[in-house]
Queue: 4 jobs
Job 1
Amino acid sequence: MTQFFQKLGNTTLSSFAKLGRSSFFLLQTLSAISSVLIRPRLLNNQLYSVGVLSFLIITISGLFVGMVLGLQGFYILSDFGAEETLGVMVAASLVRELGPVVSALLFAGRAGSALTAEIGLMKATEQLSGMEMMAIDPIKRIIAPRFLAGLLAMPLLAALFSSIGVLGGHIVGVGMLGVDEGAYWSQMQSTLDFQDDIINGVIKSIVFGFVISWIALFEGYDAIPTSEGVSRATTRTVVNSAFTILGLDFILTALMFGDI
Amino acid sequence: MDNPVNSGNDLISIENLTFSRGERKIFDDISLTIQRGKITAIMGPSGTGKTTLLKLIGGQLYPEQGIITVDGSHVHQLKRNDLYTLRKRMGMLFQSGALLTDLTVFENVAYPLKEHTSLSKSMIRTLVLMKLQAVGLRGAKDLMPNELSGGMARRVALARAIALDPMMIMYDEPFTGQDPISLGTLVKLIKNLNDTLKLTSIVVSHDVEETISIADYIYVLSEGKVVGEGTPEQIQNLDSEWVQQFMKGHPDGPVHFHYPAADYNNDLFEY
């Protein structure tokens, strides 16, 4: 029994300590962002590796998610003779929910894990320590550019995901199942609201970009500098990001659309 | 004993340093000094905290007690900016080299110059080539770190460490895992750089022969204490069984070959 409480106490203490370290890390990173703006080249390189290199996975996934939405939506809507509204259903699902959430999950798996592994290995091979000894702050040179790149890339990737998804729905709905093309686009245009749907979706994806970059970079920076430590940190990045994304999505949806 | 350390020419002084990791005391109230212009070796078996000592001197770790002074500044009371200014004058050679893996050899050596100076591109190029020439790797300037052998990586790291013309260099296990040729090269380089650039060098190592051949003064650490100090001759003739075992590499002595265990016979037969 005593052992149980000891363990509980230890776990609680260490989680609070980690929360403290990660908050401090976030503050340091945020205050270093101005130094990235002076050197846009650092940001360019990172935008390429977290953003451009995630392009393919986001495009292909967006296409298939849109196609599935088109198919499922058509079967349900045609029961009520409402297949004309397929465009609205596909687009609303994508820009409100699936776009930000699925692309964030993919982003955490593709770019977040890579960031953690990279930073963790830089720590394990003493590169971060070496920079500190050269009087170069690794938070400014290594962490902040990656953080900003993640923050900027995420909403763009989510927008790409949604757009490609809408095209996917079009391919299936209009191209294969015979929904009227004019209805597909015009219903979407008249029903979707810029503020309520598009902007809220963008806000979600910015929030997700923020937390994924934070989790991924912190896990790498805080990793135990051994191969096992880095591998555990990478796993934690993907798992914690997924939980955080889904939990935050519920909270944000409730705040934006619900009356809870 | 003639101790050259007390001549008032100290670059670094460590007074009553205590540092622990968890329950374990790495340093227990040790004091030592590093003289300007000399090569001082810190020796001791693996796990005695030799690397930790370098990180304490560089201000990357904080001691529990004690004062570390580098060139008149109390390292752990400096503000962040002052600490960084001091670090620009301290070079450090990590055991792994710690080269940035996404930059070429040339860019690695140029990195501190680009970050800390506003020199023109051509000036930086000239300086980098000079530093690389000094370590014999000018021809390797376009290689990536993963194309270098361990010894070459260390020499590139050394070129990077001297890029800003520091007053001192700390070497963390520079001889470990090197083939005889790169070992000889490194020994010669450390000695030559120290003499020609008028540096102060601290070499942390457990490679006795190589270290003795270049060190001016040696401290031997064990279990958190300084167990011996002196010039290489003095250390070799020191009347301490422990130091003798360490310097000559005897398998048994004050440090036992066997890890403490229950009686052998009992262990085998009383099961």
Note: Chain A has a mean pLDDT of 92.
Job 2
Amino acid sequence: MWTRREMVRSMVAGSAVLPAILQHCFADTGDALAPRAPHFEPKAKRMIFLFSSGGVSHVDTFDPKPALIAAAKAGKKAPNNRPYLAPFWEFKSESDCGTEVSDLFPWIRKSMDDICLIRSMRGDHNDHAQATLGVHTGSVTFARPSIGSWVSYGLGTENRNLPSFVVLAPALPYSGAQVWSSDFLPGAHAGTLVTPGADPVPNLARRAPTADLQKLELGLLDRFNKKHQIARPGDPRLAARIKSFETAFGMQMEMPEVLDLSKESDATLELYGLERGSTKGFAWQCLVARRLAERGVRFIELIDVGASNNWDAHGNMKTHEPLAKNIDRAIYGLLRDLKGRGMLSDTLVVWSSEFGRSPWPDSPEGRNHHVNVYSTWMAGAGVKPGIAYGSSDEMGAKVGENEVHVHDFHATILHLLGFDHTRLTFRHAGRDFRLTDVHGHVVQPILA
Amino acid sequence: MAGFRLLALTAVLLPTLLADPVPAAPPPDGLEFFEKKIRPVLARKCYACHSAASKPLRGRMSLDNREGMRRGGASGVPAIVPEKANEGVLLPAIRHTGHLKMPPGEKLPPEVIADFEAWIKMGAPDPRDGKAAPLPAVYDFEKARRHWAYQPVKDLPPPAVRDPQWSANGIDRYIKSKLDEKGLTPAGLASKRALLRRVTFDLTGLPPTPAEMQAFLADTSEGAYEKLIDRLLGSQAYGEKWGRHWLDVVRYADTAGCNSDFPVPDAWRYRNWVIQAFRNDKPYLEFLREQLAGDVLPYKDDEDRQAKLVATSYIALSRRFASNKTEHHLTIDDTIDNVGKAMLGLTVSCARCHDHKFDAIPQTDYFGWYGIFDSTVYTFPGVETFPRPHDYVALRGAADQKRIDDWETRLRGVHQDIRFLRFGEGRFRPTAREELKKLNAEALSIEIAPPDVPKAYAVKEGIGRNARMHYKGDPRIQGEEAPRGWLTVLGGGTIAEEIGSGRRQLADWITDPKNPLTARVMVNRIWQWHFGKGLVPTPNDFGVRGEAPSHPELLDWLAARFAESNYSVKAMHKLMLTSRAYRLASAHIAANAEKDPNNTYLWRANRRRLQAEEIRDAMLAVSGQLDPTPGGAHPFPKLHEWTYTQHRQFFARYDHNQRSVYLMQQRLRKHPLLELFDAADPNASTAARSESVTALQALALTNSEFVHQQADALAVRVGMAHSDTPSRLQHAHRLALGRPATPLEIAQGTQYLLSAKLALKDSPLPDEQKPRAALASYLRALLSSDEFFFVD
């Protein structure tokens, strides 16, 4: 097996012109992923976005509502004439900050001193596909670039052997691949989907019959392309394309290495609650996320479940239990691990769902979608740890204080990554588009 | 925002609300209440930004006089509506319950908020006379019409140039005079080989065959090049390539785009109609008219009528949204967005929520169009909560239409009953389960036997009526009626009540030869698809935010020629392709590159990467695997198998070896190979493809099954045709690159095959297959090379 370094060396050895030309050409426009400085010194160099599909009930997880319990017991009805439905789990605190979290998340509950909880989120659409797009692109209707694509567009990448925006998901979410689409931004900023299992990235595995043959073949291609390029000076695309094969080969070598967890210690696996050899569940996703973060990937998104059998508990809230179990320990492990490695100080970790769930029932044991108020949280670089910001009203039906709209959420994330959200723009179809459209305010009180 | 007077902030319309703007004399204690409780708060908390003294006056909202409070600011929504506490923007703003939160950064005490509510409920007595600040005039249309794109097309003779011999036609005189003016020296002519490869890809999306290359090189007659153009323009492949360009612009897809991405089994008819229209050189204005109003245009015969009905699929193919039927306004918006951009190069849909910020398109104009499409019935593709289609258009006349309608009505009825039993009150019936079972069986029996008649996913005339405007684009909050009509900046005009939807009138306006935009926009597109960049670099935006043309006089001259040829696209091809400018080499000239690095003035040809479909089609063509048969319908699941939801979206791939334009194209997911190479996003109009370079592309070329299959097929193709290595290599080079291999390349290639066989020594392949595998390896490199991927 050839290592990447040997490979590159052999390709370069094939012709003496490569390095100088490449250096020169990559200063040019051919390279959408060249590293770029944001608008100001950022607190976060990268972001890990944890997304739970289906709508996680805020009143059963991060937003304790004693009044809701009382109202349900007393048989009171909501203004829409539905009875109230009490939370299904007990709340308590296990952290110095005192923030109460329900028994659904016993592990995350221990991490609340590292977490900045937001209990006053609000979105624009009460349906999964639209709300999921809203959280990812700022638009609940029209196709727009994903937040990860915006970050890639703004920052470029530090590691050319890996994509700048990676999505780890076991199944397609609502709205499918639109969730990580670069839309009108250059295609290099689209998220690369990595799925657990045998074929994590399409076309990643060598198909040439032997490694030696592939090496020869790439060398031949390199010679073809350089001969072609020398006769056509002044075209950075040609150099970029030569480079892309080198990067692809780097990815072919490095991605399996990232996904190979065999060198992780037992203690680390234990921390995440991951069984050795398993690629199942959020624990695998979280550990791979840390490895991608270590290697310079700018935006890593983890989606826990797909568009079905998810948190969409219309019929039975108890279906939250296995889903919570899947992510609880793993997230705790991720935060602890990042902290232990000194990475939490420059990595922003954000958790969200597309909306919360209604304080009233949709069926005797289930709740409906609820976008008027729900909970999310951030942790790590630049955010105040151990606080709970904003509130819902006493029943968890509406925002009480300090509303954080999805646009504000995006503005704040971009701020932490070093961007003025009003200036991270792309000219398309006659106007400058941005993630926050014409809205959004940075939520100053949660900044450290 | 003149013209938009909001009638009510709530979902309910209260048309009488503003009928009496003169306040009745308030009770004296009301005035006292105002003086004590309201005025001091306004003065202390609001006047800084909202009074005659404020600079600037925020939101143009005056709160220091009665008129201002009741009229509202720039949004046209009143601050308060006397007696109606749940209307007006002031109360929600001070309660902090909406987007707007006032005063900034603080919340008034609850008792103060209660005072305001009480005051409004008592009729908002207010003694302050004063005048509200005038609202800004919406647009100065006279001034707006001075924008270059709204000016009439000027047909001036091409300029005189110093060396007239250089120019092959009028285009060249415009180009050359600009080059001279900028001090740029044009490149020499492209080689015959380069030119043939360029023009063949440009017109057909396929590489020239070795035989075609040989014939063209051998033909030294004067008219050889024109003959070549005629041959290419006459090919089926021409329609497929240029049809694909138009499908980009109209964001064609074979699925609806709703949350479940329902299939649209009859979309293909429109795709083929477009391809055929280009093949037949349908005059461009006619091409547009049929798409907008084919169903209400006169027709020659039955075939003509059917084609015209299919053409209106253009409108029905607008994107669908959500999981229910509540968001049709977004589909109409998508239609307006596309008609504006595709046909006029205007971003009309920007005026959905507010008057256009840059172009002189008021919201009333947007809703003038909205009414037209709201008076049109679109075929409904099905959506999660109403999973069966309706309003299909029969292609063969009334008897067929009746069969379709009857079938749809029966199906609709059964599904209504099913919905009632599943989600409605019916679910509480003790017999619900049994009834449901029976109904499902009945639905199945209807669904498995749809009327076997050809039908189109198209549009029909609805009831012609004007639409009310939507406050900030929200259809729940409706304002004044906007008369259906034409854009004011282009001359305006309204549609009489009695003549149906008004699509035909809209088509007349758009295709009016005096309309300065339509022809310009299309010749600019044709130019872009030949020269790599439009004379106007923003082909979907000719408005003030678009970029100005690099050669405005040339653009007009072309538009005039277009009109002269009765809008023949093929004549326009010929004009452009026979210019010298088109035939220039793509050579690098350092001195020019300094002055004009982007080649704005066309001192050389623009090298271009093959587009996604061209990459796939060219590989198939070279490997001998391309099936040239035109595509038809896709093998979608049968209607009774449609159980799509947003949780389980429709997803399928129907691969074949026909041209890529015939691949089934979904809105929510894309073909993996085509997507990698920047294929059009079918969710929005694509005016110009991007040319990204990514590592994932390289991975696909190195490791994908498709590329390996084509390289292997090519190895077999040249292996069967020749018995010796040099001839095989020679043949492969001619097929893939359109040129023979040099002796050095043959020698190096032969050497490569020996090394490759050695590199295969550890492979489990049987020895007799190793030469083929070695050759395939060589060919993979060839098919991935820049020389294959770029057109000089």
Note: Residues 1-24 of chain B have pLDDT under 50 and may be disordered.
Job 3
Amino acid sequence: MHPIYFGKRSKKKIQLHDYIRSKSIPMSVILISTFNHYNRIFLYLIDSVWFSIVKVGSALEELLVVDSVWKRFGDKVVLKDVSLVVHSGEVVGLLGPNGAGKTTLLRIISGVLKPDQGTVSIKGFNPIDSRARKLIGFCPQEPGLIPDLTGFENMLFYARLQGLDGKSVVNRIKELSGIVSLTDDIDRLVRKYSGGMKKKLGLAITLIHDPEILILDEPTTGMDPGVRREVWRIIEEERKRGKGILIATHYMEEADALSDRVYIIDQGRIIASGSPEELKSKYGPTAVITIEFYRQPRDLGDVLRKTGLKYIVDGDIVRIHSSDPDRDVPRIVALIHGAGGTIRSLKVVKPTLEDVFLRLTGRRIE
Amino acid sequence: MKWCRIKAFIVSGIKTTFREKSAVFWIFIWPIILTLMVAYVFIPPSAGQPVTLELGVVNNDHSGSPFNGTIFIDVLKEIEYNGTKLFNVKIYDNETKLVDDLRKGRLDAGIVIPNGFGENITYAQAKLVVYVSGNSIYSIQINRAIMSEFLHSFSINVGLKKIEMTMKYMNMSYVPANMTTQTPWGNKSLIEFLEEYFKGLVLPVNSTIIEETPEALSNRPSIVGWYVLGALGMMMLYSGFLVGAAAVVEEKERGSLERILSTPASEIDMLIGKTVSGLIVLTLSSIAIIVTGVFAAGARITWNPFEITDWLVPLNLILIGLMTIGMGFILSLLSKTSSGATSMATILGLFLAFTAGIWFPREWMPGPMRLLADIFPVTWALDTIRNIVIYNIGFSEAIASTIRNIIVTIIIFAVGIIAYKKVVRKYIEQ
């Protein structure tokens, strides 16, 4: 489905279905739109109605605006003219390889670092302003926990740094420890926690003061799939509560699954932005041929180069970008067999964000 | 700045300190061990009391003289100094056994009385063979000094006794009582002059030695008190250095620094919180050391809450804490890891404790070290405390040095804050 936009500002296009999701539009409306033969026309109608009735009164709020930010460390330019926006009720993915400048950007947004040029505004406040800091919940890549304190004491510590204290905080800690499934372990010393438990506690700390904007730096790195899905659930719930969420990640599937919009950053520069679907349709190949081998060809790299197509080798699986799979598949199969390889499976699938990144940079996200 | 945020750092700092076993050892256990060691090993309860030497004697003199070896042994057994017997005498059959026990460390000294001792001491010059033993250079010096001093005094007293006896005979038979002679002091009786002259031969200089130690250090409790404050100063040195040196780097290692700085809490909130938590821990440790010193080691430390001068003691303790924490912030420029900061703080703290007049009185130290003690501000503040609680100096003297200490503390802490901010920036931009 092509994305349907509302709003006239080019930088702040929001897909309607995401908007409906974020505003909890009644299921009946969605069902009608789904089953209606003219659903696109119907959705446009809803768009118009929203604009005339709802949006005029309560526009999607720009919680975070980053405008032309530059940052240098010595001679190295880490961020180059970076701009992005996060609205209430949306998850924005910041996708890029390690060293692309994601963490530096998040540190600037959270007020830890100052930009050399450009501005960051959090609901109109400079991030250095304590009023801005109360609005954001920053979860750095390292959870930032004190190992000799219990989970409860860690949460209380950060609550106090937010200026919160007393009984209400204790209740909030209990509530959050339930949300992140740490109720039974909250009184244990953090040094005895597993990596996943630490990440979840770190996320709970980010939510302790109920911030309007969540800044999450690689929130699921190092987690097993079960815990990762749990964290995704929490992020999804916060989005439903109208929070603006910015997630820096190098996991494609995370950006794809969670983000309403994605900014792709490489070597300190935003190289593309849009919804995952939009990015895939705009920058991705028509199709991706994925191949799994029984026996790899003698020189796989040479075989792949001979195809003349872009490719990614991901363990035992090879992903080859193709604009015409009907033409390319027989040729690729012949090349593999010619080099002594045998194929276990071959599929033609839709492109992912990783394919988008490959097309844009010629490299994989590592 | 909000109290709630500072409280967060204080509470977490105190809790993490008490949950870290090595910190508890260095801040509480080690100073207490040191205090007890000082009290019961270096300055044992017998310190300040006259020493009793284990003395072996071989008596080969069995003459029938009025004074002989047996009487000499009785003298040795009875002689006292300040109410304590000087010797614990053990009689040996022969010199070989005596030397054997000296070598085994069973005796501090030994005397061999030769045959004819009695006759010689009465009519000529007696001889004695004296052995001195010692397990260390200090004990051998003490044993030698005691034996020399005793034998010197004994020799003089015997000499004077012999003069007394000689003068009796002279008075009776050899010199006419009415004979006079010209002396530097005018015309004097020849008998009187000869007596003075003979005394001068035996004892040319009759000196009077008066022991005058500061009242405060004249007894063991005061000496222990001096060292208890030394232990306290030592603990404050390395603990304060550690609080300052590790303040930022430990947050960096935990990954909590950027998270903290993304909250409304400022760098200064963190600095104040960590300083206050450090001061609280140092105060608790100081109390533990002083209580141990006074009640377990018998230290004499006087503090009167109704005396305004005595209130300068806690103030100076706080100044020491702030100085050492401030110096720790400066050291943090050099420490790249928290374990590095711990090592640096401990090594430097112990080094300065022993070389800068914290642990040993500066009078004991060689010149260059004394210079270090003279210029080290922590020693100034500790000396102010010692002057108040041990030497009982007056308010005007105490307040003058306290004002100097306050000014120095402000300078050190201000430099420390600059260093701290630089370190925070350095780690954030890494």
Note: Strands of chain B lie at 53-59, 80-81, 84-85, 87-92, 109-113, 129-132, 180-183, 186-189.
Job 4
Amino acid sequence: MDVIRPSAGTGEDFAGEIKRQTSQDVAFCYQCGNCTAGCPYSEFFDYPVNQVMHLIQMGLREAVLSSRAIWLCAACETCTTRCPCEIDVAHVMDSLRAAAFWEGRQTEKEIRTFYESFLSSLKSHGRIFEAGILMRYNLASGHPFTDADLGPQVMKKGLIRFLPRNIQGREEVEKIFRKFAERRAK
Amino acid sequence: MKEYTYYQGCSLEGTAAAYDSSIRLVMKSLGVALTEPPDWSCCGSTPAHAVDRLLAGALAARNLAIVERMGSRTLLTPCPSCLSAFKKAQHAMASDKTFKEEVNGLLDSPYDCTVTAKSALQVLYEDIGTGEIARPVTTALPGLRVAPYYGCILNRPPKIAAFDDPENPVSMDRILAAVGVDVADFAFKLECCGAAFGVPKKEMVLKLTAKVLSMALDAGANCIAVACPLCQQNLDLRQSQVNKALGQSFAIPVLYFSQIMALTYGYTPQEAGLTKNIVGPGALIAARRPVEQQPVEQARSASE
């Protein structure tokens, strides 16, 4: 089948870049809108997900990577499940967010800070220390009272631990992060 | 006696401890032995795959490699986020040799792609079956009408999850019916609650969560059954935030499906971990009573 590639030859082959990273060919998207119709986050997005696919086709890399949509996607997989062209749309969104993340973009600072807080906890202890993630997030995000209203209930019910527990293989987990960082630096 | 390698996951050590304890009770009653992989680490969950696929693969594969070294081929995990991390890592590594090498390059001990991850729901539904599930039932819960809420990633995307229907799953409906519980038709079985954004994007989660709660009431349910720690947290712990932010007055108990099963197996509300629930299901379970005959008939019709 011939597929029209609007950005081919313009030096802005963003769809090609995405394909190399995800092996998903966004050029196959014919804008049926199934992904957006099922997307629970459309009302919060600046570009609904079908438009994100279209922007990729048009080679508009900057518009896509500076969008809020790629951060606000919570990866529910509805788009991937329903795409008639069998594009793994959620995987494409993951890859766009990853690109924005490593370029240091701050479009959705809170979400970025939350991910960083989570991964930092994982790296330090080998497992997640829920209270620690919230504390780090509250300090780093400039929203120091996030979920403070839930504190009394959470404590009364004994839902959180106050001290982290490290696994024995903590260094092995830290090494995964270190080797990954070395690979990225290359 | 059936045996499974059981990956508890971080949430089930913390805010979702009642999910862990009730799954263990249910499995014990069904004669299923659970063994924990030694020194497991976090699966990476959403934040890992949100920032890099290779990092996510390695964090998941460290655990899969431990299970592989135990000589086990199946990993049971109750948490859909862990499940999805393991299934995605397994799928990507098994189908892409270069990716497999890259992931193994980050690990001390390599993973050879021999482990299949299954949710607790899948093990109960497919390996044990509704007939067996009905056997230990001693207690009826006549006050309960349950909306079964699967959450978004337990059985999606279908190619990777390979379990139940991706648009209208029925496993939880049938398991709950098999233990004699009244199950409502629920249109929002799969609609996302906002997942991990409860902290960084609260307004989004509260809106999405309110829709799920409201649809459960519309379905005639007085209680929601969940299979995911994050869904439980958003629907139960954040219900007070939903009420405050959106001017609502929801008071719907949100139980792990395994807590409901444990109650029907005769465990006390305390043993089933109900003291950990924020919105108390007290009034709904007050009417519980012994069943004279096991609801085998119900199980039979549920599995048909």
Note: The mean pLDDT of chain A is 94.
